[in-house]
Amino acid sequence: MNILAQKILAAPHGKTALFSAGQAGFIIKSASGQLLGIDLYLSDCVERLEAHMGFKRLLPRILSPYDFDFDCLIATHPHFDHFDFDSVPELMSNGRTRLFASVECEALVDRLQMTNDRITYVKPGDTCECGDFRLHFVSCDHGEGAPDAVGVIAEADGRLIYEAGDTCLRLDRAEEYLSFGVPDVMIAPINGAFGNMNEEDCARFAAALSPKLTVPCHYGMFASHGGNPGLFMKKMEKICPELPYTLMTQGEAIII
């Protein structure tokens, strides 16, 4: 069993836990033990499909698609590090996992010939129920490359975990995100490439939303993606020094 699977199993029952799977991938384990996976990248498909050294996987694979039966999965947009073309069919092969994917992902699902009644295509404004999780899909701005990309605010055990998805800085949408309440955790990109927020943008975004904890993501996996967690720390300390944040290593768990 892989490293992350061992940590998920060891997480205390009765607590809500958040795990980093690397890149923009996160797993939420509810107090009762149900599992939600967001934008999990578990394979090497990006380098294979893009045929570019800049997309070579630089972080180890620490979870197998067959380690767990997830209750639900989210793919915020169809880029292969968010909709893992090799792993999604394996994750869905158990006959029970539900997938919530942006509408643009339907073309990839069709290519994989895996269309079934456990797949729901979502857009900003949608709210879906999946076991212990209530999923509020919100807008993001990932540019023309993924115009229908979504972010998600996941409710579990009275906690709010906001995964911004791949997006540039849109302070004008802060009211939309806060309409569900102040996030207990906000996860947002810092790589500053491909239409995403950079380190300063993420700090400014945190200042606007005042989450109880900010977690940067989308760095370290690919050479071409950028993202400097040390610079993010400096920007947080300058722009909003009163707000807590943490850097999650791949495979790390925190109790929310």
What's this, in brief?
With 256 residues, this protein is of the alpha/beta class. It is 21% helix and 25% strand.
Question: How does this model look, in words?
Answer:
The chain is of the alpha/beta class and 256 residues long. The protein has helices at 3-10, 45-50, 87-91, 106-112, 174-178, 199-209, 229-239, and strands at 17-22, 25-29, 35-38, 72-75, 98-102, 119-122, 127-130, 133-139, 150-156, 159-163, 185-189, 214-217, 253-255. It is built from seven helices and 13 strands. The protein has a seven-stranded mixed beta sheet with strand order 6-5-4-3-2-1-13, covered by helices on one side. It has a six-stranded mixed beta sheet with strand order 7-8-9-10-11-12, covered by helices on one side. The two termini are 25 Å apart. The model has no long low-confidence stretch (mean pLDDT 96).
